[in-house]
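request received
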Amino acid sequence: MDAQFWNELYGGREQLWSGAPNGVLVTEVTGLPPGRALDVGCGEGGDALWLARRGWQVTAIDISSIALERAAAATGALTDRVTWSHTDLTSAPPPAGPFDLVSAQYFPLPHQPDHTALRGLLDAVAPGGTLLFAGHDPAEFPPDDEHGFHPDDFYQPADVAKLLDESWTVLVDETRPRTAPAPPGTHHTRDVVLRARRGSGSGS
Ligand SMILES: C[S@@+](CC[C@H](N)C(=O)[O-])C[C@H]1O[C@@H](n2cnc3c(N)ncnc32)[C@H](O)[C@@H]1O
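response:
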């Protein structure tokens, strides 16, 4: 799942995703005061543009140049609010933060023994800021031996939760039905959602 893989996937269709923001993002972020946001694996930009329209200052990164070209083309009058960054998060650190929101939606981050990339994302969250990490329910994601894909090779929200120390407060850690139809060509019906705030104590 390198840049070539993703560019071939995006290049094979005029538009891969709906352009609408992910339901998990809308559910979990509506109500948070806007600040600086990092959208990790932003694809064609639906989430980043939704955030920008709500007053967030967004840095959106993706490994696919084709996805980023489409996202940039859809930016319109929001150019002052969004920075599109061509980054491979497995080999480069996230853009300089800190961010009030770090959102990773269906982002395929391969396990690393030292968790460097994942720890970089956690470190990018500002004190009091939010980490939102969502994925498809791995129970609905059988291994695909033909293409060498196995969901256990990638961080799931539960893996991320295990790496959060006492300086984090987990607010949501659950599997729940998707609010939108399954992405084209898939049959996903459930999301796994982790939302955590950097810092302890009460509040939402
Ligand atoms: C399943 S898509 C999700 C896109 C978007 N978040 C959404 O929900 O519509 C995963 C995205 O992560 C990007 N991606 C995969 N590996 C990456 C990496 N190592 N660094 C940055 N982006 C990556 C892909 O190009 C793709 O756009």
